[in-house]
Amino acid sequence: MTSTTEPLAATPAQPTRRPLSELVRRWAVFVLLGALFVLFSLREPAFLTLPNVMSVLQAVSVVAIIGVGVTISIAVGGFDLSVGAVDASSVMAASYAMVVWHFTAPQTVLFVLALGLAIGLLNAFLIVRLNVPDLLATLAVNFLLTGLQLIPTAGRSIATGLILPDGRSANGVFDAAFLSLGRTRLFDVVPLPVVIMLVVAIAAGLFTERTRFGRLIFAVGGNELAAHLAGARTGRLKVLAYALSAVLAALGGIIVAARVGRGDVSSGASLLLDAVAASLIGYAVLNARRPNVFGTVVGAIFVGVLLNGLTMLNVPYYTQDFVKGFVLVGALALTYGSARRRI
Question: How large is the C-alpha radius of gyration of the chain?
């Protein structure tokens, strides 16, 4: 008996359209960033001038560099809360090395980066070998460094003529080559810290998105047990992530010290929160929903533009954190709140 059922005719593929909610999630941060540019430029024409734009990028360069390190630590399934203290300690260490020990610029840079690497390895040892939860381990190191950086100078900032605890006077000076790292402008326009930020962002972006190690880092953060069973050396990948995070924080401290020209005991106080904010905003950029270097840099610029605009509009300093928090909450709510599960 033959079947009389005829095969169904193939229906032409319908063009897929992205729902409005997905478009909102994908571009919300850029729309808000553009709105900030328009608002601030209308209220203050000097906002969109090239010198001010470069000033904003220079101001966010350190936050972006530190934020990239935080992003890598989040990608591996952890969270580095010590980056602010690493940055501050690096500022003090660089200043102490030149003013007290009379180090040259290359010696100082190598010393501070090595210090950052040692701190990253300490974090990794606590987390990987001793199984201390990442938040507790890096928070403990944060407190350790915050107190340790004050001991060599008895809590004083470091500058030429510093009186040491033993009564000696430190008469070293900041190397001009070192200061150029924070004060040089390429073609008298682009600050060198902005160039360093771009180099770090491109290198870190290629590493995390285009290399085997980068993919393995995300695999560990997604499911550590599965990554281990698949043959990934999860412990070594965590060590690499925390080492990179601390080294990048130390690099940020070098830039701050070179820009300021002194070891300020209050440096790095707000960098942790700003770097974490930039990293978390990165989740919403292009609806990535995961840590990513590009999103982190965009998040740092977003925060920098907001603070610069508020300052130019003479908004009282004691309200700026509130406004920043309000805008950030709005940006994240707009991005994530529009995502509704279909049942």
Answer: 24
Token readout for 138 is 């890096």
Rounded CA separation 335/283 (Å): 9
Cα separation, 112 vs 188, whole angstroms: 28
DSSP β-bridge partners for residue 170: 162
The pLDDT of residue 12 is above 90 = no
Instruction: Say what the pTM is.
Output: 0.90
- Both tokens of 160, joined, read 């030429």
Cα–Cα nearest to 124, from 234, 271, 273: 234
- 156-190 residue pLDDT tens: 999 999 998 888 899 999 999 999 999 999 988 99
Pick the range with the lowest mean pLDDT from 9-13, 284-288, 291-295. Answer: 9-13
| Length reported for the chain | 343
Contact 108, 178 (CB under 8 A): yes
Q: Distance between CA atoms of 107 and 118, rounded to whole angstroms? A: 16
